[in-house]
Amino acid sequence: VEARTIYKVLAGSRAYGLETVKSDFDVRGICMPTEDVIYGLSNFEQFEDKTNDIVIYDIRKFFRLALKCNPNIVELLFVRSDDVLSANYYGCLIREQRHLFLSQRARMTFSGYAHSQLKKFVASALPGGSGPNFKNAMHLIRLLKTGISILRDGEPEVYRYCDRDQLLDIRNGHYTVEQIDGIAEMLNLELNECPTDLPAEPDYETANELLIRIVRSYLSDQRLKEMR
Length: 228
Hints:
The protein is an alpha+beta fold. It has helices at about 15, 35-40, 60-65, 70-75, 90-95, 105-125, 135-155, 165-170, 175-195, 205-225, and strands at about 5-10, 25-30, 45-50, 55-60, 85. A 5-stranded mixed β-sheet has the order 3-4-2-1-5. Strand 3 and strand 4 form a beta hairpin. It is globular and about 65 Å long. It starts with a strand and ends with a helix.
């Protein structure tokens, strides 16, 4: 997988600028499948190293998820340049074309992922529970704001330059449960009503052509190397 990885970035809290001294180094990336996976019966979607918090996606799965505007996937294309750990020609090509994957689907996907964080936060705050999990609350607010930035600005604000202090204050328990609920309700309304120039759906045809071109070119390069 390492030899066939075309794009690798720092992800998670460090990519958001929200890390603490205890935060892990999450790494995510894209790799090219082998010919037997493409043409044969073998199956491969992603490589995971849970010990070192590494996930590397098959390029085809990555494209499918990115076109759905999956929050955990699409943000990987918009991390800061400093957080790109490695990118060959093909990885750079995908990053250059990253806006292909953005659409108004962001309203649904980011709202959905934020709602899952809200459910976890509410459950943790119930009487008799372990106490409010403010990390879930932080990610709830971050996801809603990131979704809004996609619709408003045409790309996600991954590194939280403007609201880093607020998000860390939420994580550190400086906001009450009621305050967080109020902020989340306001942001969810903004996400649903935010005007945007993005298309309703991503450009599937162009993205598919890009994927085919990359896979064909990569496999051709590999065959040439094997012949030498």
